[in-house]
Design goal:
The protein is of the alpha/beta class and 446 residues long. The protein has two domains: 129 residues, no CATH class; 285 residues, no CATH class. The chain is built from five helices and 23 strands. About 6% of the residues have low confidence.
């Protein structure tokens, strides 16, 4: 019988196979570990690029420093030159190296590119120890602020049944508004199905209705208004005016002292409270009054404003109160408020004339289910009155009853409903320069 002898030359072959398999396994682990790291780095990098694009584009739209805004946003999202991983942060205004849609203007676009690196680990087995590099880029576009074309002297935004705007005035053949004794210069808009009930007054300017003109009223009208929908052209938030805000209240304190921003201790104030304590000139007195709840403004005590500012001279009929009143409840101005002309305190909002510059009265009262039962947000009853500024009640009704002598306003009334604007002599003139422009349009291009 022959015996089989094993060759001594086969010893150690398993080690070679294991070594070869280890290289493959390490490469697979490197792909998983380093590839996963690259994925997360690329995600974070793209998020930073998108944030930088939006910030840089917004700065372009608003006249800011485009490069600074983009670099700051990138740093806030974890990518800043000198941090050990960021290689480049490039902000280009106008954009460079991008393909734009037909007809697009390169000057409307901003481009951002960021590159970063991360150390390699297991993948070094197959590619060396050079760091792994990721790049991301984005493009943003800016359409600058445009003139707000939806303004009217009287604007009702309610779109659920009934008249969003109701104006009632007396008669008189020689009055400035044909067939009535009131004049609305600058047009009327009612978003509701009910249209606009104007009584006997036909305004100067466009009369528009959101969806249906059947409810249009007016004995002297020459035809129905144009069907044209508009969103509320004002967009202030009550939080902007709260005493805890870092915005407008602080601006008042800085420019006019601690008394300029005032939260009344009770829900009733007088005409004297509209002026800064110690003020000797109405032009140097500006107040922002904020109240959480219902607030009533009553007339001054006899002779109080005359003793404070001196007698009215040179044809003046009122003392000008540069004031903005913002309440979360109902704002009521009683009939004995006769000595004051309410003028927006816009000059105190910010030196550059920001979007809050012309606000006069604001209330956030709301809760009605349709135009017919919207609760009063601003109620003003007077035999004569004058104001200059924007009256804003985005979710409530404005109820103004003016009898006797003239009532005149420059600016505009913007509310969910303006369902009771009545009187024998009402003159309202819309000033388009008071309306904030449409906000800039910005976005990330595909």
């Amino acid at each position: 019988m022959k015996s089989v002898r094993k060759s001594t030359y086969e010893k150690g072959q398993v080690i070679v196979l294991i070594a070869a398999m280890m290289v493959g396994m390490i490469a697979m682990i490197g792909l998983a570990v380093d590839g996963g790291g690259l994925y997360f780095l690329n995600r974070d990098l793209q998020n930073a690029v998108d944030a930088a694009v939006i910030a840089a584009t917004y700065a372009k739209c608003t006249g800011g420093d485009v490069v600074f805004a983009g670099e700051t946003a990138a740093a806030d999202n974890g990518f800043e030159l000198g941090d050990g991983r960021t290689m480049t942060v490039e902000i280009h205004d106008p954009a460079t190296g991008v393909a734009l849609p037909a007809g697009a203007d390169i000057n409307d676009y901003v481009s951002v590119s960021i590159s970063a690196e991360k150390p390699s680990y297991f993948i070094q087995v197959v590619r060396g120890n050079d760091p792994l590099i990721v790049e991301a880029a984005g493009v943003g576009y800016c359409k600058e602020s445009d003139t707000n074309d939806s303004g009217r002297a009287v604007f009702g935004a309610c779109d659920t049944g009934g008249d969003a705007v109701r104006i009632e005035s007396g008669g008189g053949a020689s009055d400035p508004c044909p067939g009535g004794n009131s004049e609305i210069v600058g047009g009327i808009h009612s978003e509701s199905d009910g249209g606009s009930n104007q009584g006997t007054c036909v305004p100067e300017g466009d009369v528009t209705s959101g969806t249906n003109t059947d409810g249009y009223h007016g004995t002297s009208n020459e035809g129905p208004p144009e069907v044209e929908s508009h969103d509320m052209p004002l967009y202030w938030e009550i939080e902007e005016f709260d005493e805890l805000s870092d915005e407008i209240p602080q601006a008042f304190v800085l420019q006019f002292g601690p008394d300029a921003y005032w939260v009344p201790p009770t829900n009733t104030i007088t005409e004297e409270d509209l002026f800064l304590p110690g003020a000797t000139n109405t032009d140097d007195s500006a107040r922002l009054i904020y109240y959480n709840g219902d607030l009533t403004v009553k007339g001054a005590t006899s002779g109080a404003l005359q003793s404070k500012f001196g007698p009215l001279t040179g044809g003046q009929a009122f003392y000008d109160a540069h004031v903005t009143i913002v309440v979360t409840g109902k704002l009521s101005l009683s009939g004995d408020v006769k000595d004051t002309k309410f003028v927006h305190a816009g000059k105190a909002f910010d030196a550059d004339g920001g979007p809050t510059s012309y606000l006069l009265f604001m209330s956030t009262v709301g809760g009605g289910t349709n135009c017919n039962n919207t609760p009063d947000a601003i109620f003003w009853s007077a035999s004569e009155a004058a104001w200059e500024g924007l009256i804003y009640a985005p979710t409530g009704n404005v109820n103004m009853s003016m009898s006797g002598n003239d009532a005149s306003g420059l600016g505009g009334i913007f509310a969910w409903t303006v369902r009771s604007l009545s009187g024998s002599h009402i003159y309202i003139t819309f000033d388009p320069d008071m309306l904030p422009p449409d906000p800039p349009s910005i976005g990330i291009a595909d």
